[in-house]
Amino acid sequence: MAFNHLPAGVHDALAPLSVTPVTHSVPMAKNHRSDRSPTDHATRLPPGMLLDRLASGPSRAARITHTEHLPPRAGRHAVWPDRIRPEVVAAVQACGIEHPWAHQARVAEHALDGDSVVVATGTASGKSLAYLVPVLSTLLDGSEAPNGRGATALYLAPTKALAADQCRAVRDLARPLGTAVRPAVYDGDTPVEEREWIRQYGTYVLTNPDMLHRGILPSHPRWSSFLRALKYVVIDECHTYRGVFGSHVAQVLRRLRRLCARYGASPAFLLASATAAEPAVAARRLTGLPVVEVADDASPRGELVFALWEPPLTELQGEKGAPVRRPATAETADLLTDLTLQGVRSVAFVRSRRGAELISVIAQERLKEIDRPLARRVAAYRGGYLPEERRALERALHTGELLGLSATTALELGVDVSGLDAVLIAGYPGTRASLWQQAGRAGRAGQGALAVLVARDDPLDTFLVHHPEALFDRPVESTVLDPDNPYVLAPHLCAAAAELPLTEEDIDLFGPACAELLPQLEAAKLLRRRTKAWHWTRRERAADLTDIRGEGGRPVQIVEAGTGRLLGTVDEAASHTSVHEGAVHLHQGRTYLVRSLDLDDSVALVEEANPPYTTVARDTTSISVLETDVEIPWGDGRLCYGSVEVTNQVVSFLRRRVITGEVLGETKLDLPPRTLRTRAVWWTVTEDQLDEARINPEILGGALHAAEHASIGMLPLFATCDRWDIGGVSIPLHPDTLLPTVFVYDGHPGGAGFAERAFHTARAWLTATREAIASCECDAGCPSCIQSPKCGNGNDPLHKRGAVRLLTVLLKGAPPEADGKPEPEKEGEA
C-alpha cells in the first residue's frame, strides 16, 4: 500500500469558539485622516501597545513565542532627472510628493536611457512612482509626435485586483496631463464594447500574463499600432513569477519581444518587487534581457512589530488520539474581532478560500453579539468571486468602509490599502517572500504597524514560531524558474508559430531547448516546416494548448440549482476535492451543498443548506520511476533525482462535525484518475539500515509515512514553494527501487524546480525534518510534526519515534558535500 500526500488539500475546520474580546477602554477621538471612515472610533495606537492589548488575559500572553521589532528608518531624497517633463513633476507634487526618494530617481534615469531595470526595495517604498514617472513623461512626449499614435506602455500584474488598483492610481496621477495618458484595464472582466477602444486608443494598458498569452498576442494584428509604439513593459510584483507559472510567463514575454521586433519596437522592461533575492539575475531569467538592479531602499519606514503566535492545545483529540491545537482560522478570527472592536483597520490573510470565508463568518458572528453595526464592516475577499463583487470589496476597503477583511493571497500583491494598522497571517504562507509581502500591507502610509503570524497545527509552522531566526535572520528565497522545461516551452513554440511562422533566428530567443523540440513538434504534426520556417498546422488556437498557471482545463462554474445564479468559479484542478458531489461549499458567509458535479460541462450545482459538518476529500496515489537522472550513495541507502509519473484519484470524502472535528461518516466517490509526469527526489534505505534503526515490518510503513509528511512540511524552508506545491508518496517496498522508498515530487507537469532544490540541500533539509519531529512535545505524533492536513490516507499509519530513528540512520550516511552543495548554474534558473 502506498501512503500519499498530494499537492491539493483541505483546510482547517471550525473549532470551538471561546472568543474573549479585549475589554480595554479605547479613547474616543475624532480622526481626520483621509484614509479612515468617519465612523471609526479609535485613535491609532503604537504597534507595541496594540499587541499588548491583543495579548491581555490569563492565557493569551503565553501564545506569543517571539516578538521582533524592526526600527523606523529615515528617508533620503533626490531630484528627478532633467528629462522628466515638468508637467509630470508638477502632477507628482500636486499629490504631496515634493521630491523623490533616491532609488526612485535612479530608476527613472535608467528607464529614460532605455535600460531594462528592476527596482527591488521594500513594501511601500514608492516603486510604482519610480516607474510611472518616466513612463508618463515618455507618453507625454509621444503625444506631441507629428504622425502616428505616439508612445504606449504595457503593465502586467499577477492579479486582476492589482491591475485595477494600479489603474485607479494612474488615473489620479495623470488627470492633470489631459488626454495624452489614457490608462485602461484589459482583462477577462473588460466589457466587449470597451475592448476595441482600448486597442485603438489606450496608451497605458494594464493587463495580466494570462490575457497577454490568450488574448493580446494571438490577436497581434489588431494590436499592431499599440505594439509598434510600445516603449515600456512594466512587470509588477515580479517575484511571483516563479516555478511553472514563472517559466510560462518567461516564454510569454519572449513571444511579446518577438512580435514587438516584428513591428519595429524594442521596449524596455521595468520590473518591481519588494521581496526578491538576486533581483537582477531573476529579472534576466524572466525577460531574457540584461537588467540593471536598483535595490538600495532610500524610503523611510515606520516601526514594525512582528509577533509569532501559537494557538493553545485543546481538550479535543484528533486522528489516533493525537492532541489538537486550536485552528489558526479560529484563532485569527478572534484576533480580527478584537482589532475590529478597537477600530483598528486590519487584513487577515489565509491560504485557502474556505479559510477566508470561515474567518469572516466567525468574526461577524462574534461582532453581532457585541456591536451589531460593526459586523457589517468585516468581509471576506478571495478568488472565485464575480468581478462586480471583487470591485465592490476593493472600493470598500480603499475608502475605509470596511474595517476588517479576511483575504486570500488574491489581495496580497501591491494593492494600495494605505492606512492599515495591522496584518494577521493565518499560517505561514509558504515562503519568506510572501510573508513579508503580507506583513507589508500594514503601515503603508509610513506609520507604525503590527503583524502577527498565527501558526497552524503543522510541522513547519510549529518549527518557525519556535525558531524565529529561520524567519528574521535569513533572506528571502531565490526565484526558481526554468523556461527550458519542455512541458512549458513546447506549447509556447506552437503559440509563437501561430502568431508568426518560426524561423531559425528565433531559436536564440526561445533558448537552446528550442532546437531539440522543433523536430518533435513536427513529428507530432503540431508544426510543419515549409522552406525555412515552421508553421502551426491546426485549426484550433495554439494558445489554448496550455494554461500558464498550470491549472489545466476551464474553470468549473458554481451555480445555484434553484435559481441558476452563478456564485463563482473554482479551478478545474481543484474541483475534484472542493466541489465533488456532497461537498460543503462556502460563499460570502452562506453555506451550500454540492448536489452534482458535471466535469464534461464544467458545472457544479449547489443548493443552500446548513449542515452541521464540513467535508474533507480522500484520495489515493501511486508513483512510478520513469528515469533516474542522478543517484548518490548515502551509506547503504541512495538519494536520487529524476522523472516520475504520479497517478491520483479522489475516492471518498469524510463528513466532520463542525465543532469537534468528529468524523460522522465516509462516502465513496466515483471520479476519474489523473496522471502527472513530473520531477521528484527520493531516498531509499536497506535492510541493514532498518535493523540499525530498530524498524521492524510492523512499524516500517508508519515510520516512512511520518518521515514523508514531515519532510514535505519542512521543504518550504529550502525551496521557493509551499507544501501545497509538492506531493509525496512513501511505500515499504517500491516495485521500481525494490526497497523502502520515500518520494517528494513537484505538483506541476514537467516539474517546477522544487524537488531539484530538495536534492541539492538534502542533508540540511532532512536534518531539519528530523529535528522538527524529535523536538515536538507530543508523544505519538500530531499535526505539529508528522500529521498532514492533506493526507489521502487519513494519517494512518504513522510512527513518530520510528521516523526519528530512520532519519537518524539515513543522515549518518549522508556525504559531507550534501550539505550546502552548490547547485550547477543552468540557463533558466535563478
From TrEMBL:
Gene3D superfamilies: P-loop containing nucleotide triphosphate hydrolases. GO terms for biological process: interstrand cross-link repair; nucleotide-excision repair. Residues 108-294 form the Helicase ATP-binding domain. It comes from the Bacteria. PROSITE patterns: HELICASE_ATP_BIND_1 (PS51192), HELICASE_CTER (PS51194). Residues 32-43 have a biased composition (Basic and acidic residues). The keyword ATP-binding applies. One of its GO terms (molecular function) is 3'-5' DNA helicase activity. Pfam families: DEAD (PF00270), Helicase_C (PF00271), MZB (PF09369), WHD_HRQ1 (PF22982). Residues 28-47 are annotated as: Disordered. Residues 331-487 form the Helicase C-terminal domain. Keywords: ATP-binding, Helicase, Hydrolase, Nucleotide-binding. This is DEAD/DEAH box helicase. It comes from Streptomyces mexicanus.
